[in-house]
TrEMBL record:
It comes from Actinoplanes xinjiangensis. Transmembrane segments: none annotated. This is Alpha-tubulin suppressor-like RCC1 family protein. It comes from the Bacteria. Residues 177-452 form the RCC1-like domain. Keywords: Guanine-nucleotide releasing factor, Repeat, Signal.
Length: 717
């Protein structure tokens, strides 16, 4: 949706009365969010940050900024409006300044094209307000006249043509315009008599005139009401407030983004949140946020990356509270993030931070943690394992605890409710294993139990015993199959078998556990399961793999059967996940093979490494765990290292950049063991405390992270 969101200007007059003590430093008075952010400080200085490839930050460069940078030396900025392509702002003397991309004439500077990375004044007239979108700008002069410029392929400038305008062009003859809001393909404005006018392309009824598909090249009055006070637009939706503080929205309602509890498109205004008294509204690309007269913040629509600010990533068809512990003055909904001003002048942001939209020096979005956070205050943790979006850990007293996503009952608490903090699973346990939506464990009495998404499409929300034997010693869980080892060192598997991953020399699906690779060895020391392959280590330290080999995860150079062990030095442990396999040598060397799509195997063949490859020359690895397209390992000195995919900060290095070589997680040298999920990681330190990082969208880190993050107030000149 890049470029489809209009920037909503939040200019707020603040007093010092009731300002929290920590806000004694300069505070914020206005904010505008798009795919980056700009804000005005209480001293009138303007600061921008985030993506900057078109010069939208205004600091004379096209370098992205992870923290707020000052636009120029003026302390007279009054309002700001930012889009993905350019930014415009007004000063207290009424002058209008724009910068960024000029390719469609959206800066209003005439024939100038290309990029203008510093503020340039637009003419010599004086202006009251400005609103920008990707290719267009509209502004109201101090005499109340409306002017627009930039792209005009759908008549969205409102001058009756489809001609691009590179300088301000007057729209109509009216001189009582009070508000204007621009989106990619339509524009809406308010006049002094309270009437609402819209024009441009009418996709999904976004103009609100009840005639979807019928475009307007000049302003057309919407309805007969004369009580409108505020309007906000994006490409497919429009919202407005009336004098009774009622909120109305219309246009596309895909995924319930209008907030009326349905997914029905609305070509005419429909009331949102009846019974509430609304003070302001901001429409983002795929979500909407509004503030009530009681200073409550509510958001609805798409909640990817947590942009609604409710500590979840669950989409909402009706308003849900956002950060209810603060009093809000105004919100600005951007492309995939939201920023808000509190009544005390603090600025907070939440949602996507991949382009440094938060200005806090990181690119870590919420809900995520790019550095280890402690999962509660408990100690005594002994073992941890991550599934898809859930985590389980065993304590030294043999109790088992699970938390995070629970859509298939994988937490084992008898429900399908996600849990952000650990909950105990009944029984005492010797060992356990997890994968996407499944958990299995061996109890102290040698019985084997599984729950969650079980083979043959069965969902179980509490531990269910597997067979009647009490001789199990270990278990591993793949994406569609399960394997376990008995005390006689035999190996048994069940579940999906389309690639022969069960090791019974067929592709049929058995109803109960079947012996695996009995013809190879009757003395298995360890077994590990990937998506559709299985690997085992015998008591002599030799490794065999069978099942799927589409990414080379069997490690036998495209062989057809595990007739021979893999060419490896004696192995002390074997690990499989997804389409990767790794082994630790008895000499503490590290070997991997399989899919290398994220560089997790050292950045060789981007598709497959079909024979074991030593990843580093170091021979000090003591522990290894595999996530989905990333790895983490502990070295002899207790340091923890991760590499591979990092889209959800699962490597713990405070970035979201993929790494093809191990990067250290902090400076701690007290790591004892670690476990990885699909896109999160947890580790246990020598004091038996538990720490997690990466994605927390289902609470899998075991701690409730605040959805919002404070934007630091710059203290520079």
């Amino acid at each position: 949706m890049r470029g489809f969101v209009t920037s909503v200007v939040l200019a707020v007059l603040l007093t010092t009365t009731g300002v929290p003590a920590r806000a004694a430093a300069p505070t914020w008075t206005a904010v505008s969010a798009a795919d980056g952010t700009c804000a005005i400080r209480s001293d009138g200085s303007l600061w921008c940050w985030g993506t900057n490839h078109r010069g939208t930050v205004g600091d004379g460069t096209t370098t992205g900024r992870t923290r707020p940078v000052r636009v120029d030396d003026s302390r007279a900025w009054a309002s700001v409006s930012r889009s993905w392509s350019h930014t415009c702002a007004t000063r207290t003397d009424g002058s209008l300044w724009c910068w960024g991309d000029a390719s469609a004439g959206q800066l209003g500077l005439g024939a100038a094209a290309g990029t203008q990375p510093r503020p340039a004044r637009v003419g010599t007239d004086t202006w009251k307000s400005v609103s920008v979108t990707g290719e267009r700008t509209c502004a109201i002069r101090t005499d109340g006249s409306l002017w627009c410029w930039g792209g005009n392929w759908m008549g969205q400038l409102g001058d009756g043509t489809e001609t691009e305008r590179r300088t301000p062009t007057r729209i109509g003859a009216a001189t009582d315009w009070t508000r204007v809001a621009v989106a990619r393909m339509h524009t809406c404005g308010l006049r002094g008599d309270g009437t609402l006018w819209c024009w441009g392309y009418n996709v999904n009824g976004v103009l609100g005139d009840g005639q979807p598909g019928t475009g307007r090249k000049t302003p057309a009055r919407i309805g007969t009401a004369a009580s409108w006070t505020e309007v906000s637009v994006t490409e497919e939706r429009t919202c407005a407030l009336d004098r009774d503080r009622a909120l109305w929205c219309w246009g596309s309602n895909h995924l319930g983004r209008l907030g009326d509890g349905t997914e029905i498109d609305r070509p005419a205004p429909v009331r949102i949140g009846a019974g509430r008294s609304w003070a302001s509204v901001s429409v983002g690309a795929d979500h909407i946020c509004a503030v009530t007269t009681g200073a409550d913040a509510l958001c609805w629509g798409d909640n990817t990356e947590g942009r609604l600010g409710d500590d979840t990533t669950v989409h909402a068809r009706s308003p849900v509270p956002a950060s209810p512990d603060l009093d809000w003055r105004a919100l600005s909904a951007g492309t995939a993030h939201t920023c808000g001003l509190t009544t005390g002048g603090e600025l907070w942001c939440w949602g996507d931070n991949g382009g440094n939209q938060f200005g806090d020096g990181t690119d870590i979005s919420s809900p995520m943690s790019g550095t280890p956070v402690r999962a509660g205050t408990a100690t005594g943790w002994a073992e941890v394992s991550g599934g898809g979006d859930h985590t389980c850990a065993r304590r030294t007293d043999a109790t088992l605890w699970c938390w995070g996503g629970n859509r298939a009952g994988q937490l084992g608490d008898g429900t399908t409710t996600s849990r952000p903090v650990p909950r105990r699973v009944a029984g005492t346990w010797k060992t356990f294993a997890t994968d996407t939506d499944t958990t299995c464990g061996v109890r102290d009495d040698g019985t084997l139990w599984c729950w969650g998404a079980l083979p043959r499409k069965k969902t179980v929300t509490a531990p269910q015993r597997v067979g009647r034997l009490a001789t199990w010693t270990g278990v591993t869980v793949g994406e569609s199959h399960i394997c376990a080892r008995r005390d006689d060192a035999t190996l048994w598997c069940w579940g999906g078998n389309h690639a022969g991953q069960l090791g019974n020399r067929t592709t049929t699906v058995p109803r109960e556990p079947v012996p695996a690779r009995r013809e190879i060895s009757a003395s298995w020391a360890e077994v590990t399961a990937g998506s559709a392959h299985t690997c085992g280590r015998d008591t002599g330290g030799r490794v065999w793999c069978w099942g799927d080999d589409t990414s080379g995860q069997r490690g036998d150079a495209r062989g057809t059967s595990p007739a021979q062990p893999l060419v490896l030095p004696p192995v002390s442990s074997i690990h499989a996940r997804s389409r990767d396999t790794c082994a630790l040598g008895a000499d503490r060397s590290l070997w991997c093979w399989g899919d290398d799509g994220a560089g997790q195997l050292g950045g060789g063949d981007p598709f497959r490494q079909d024979v074991p490859r030593q990843l580093t020359t170091d021979r000090d690895w003591t522990h290894l765990t595999l996530g989905h397209s990333f790895l983490c390992g502990i070295r002899a000195g207790g340091s923890l290292w991760c590499w591979g995919a990092n889209g959800r900060a699962e490597l713990g290095d405070m970035t979201r950049e993929y790494k093809t070589r191990p990067v250290r997680v902090g400076t701690d040298t007290a790591w004892l063991t670690a476990g990885t999920g699909r896109v999160h990681t947890c580790g246990i330190r020598t004091d038996r405390s538990l720490w997690c990082w990466g994605d927390n969208s289902k609470g899998q880190l075991g701690v409730v992270l605040p959805a919002r993050r404070a934007v630091p107030v710059p203290t520079g000149p």
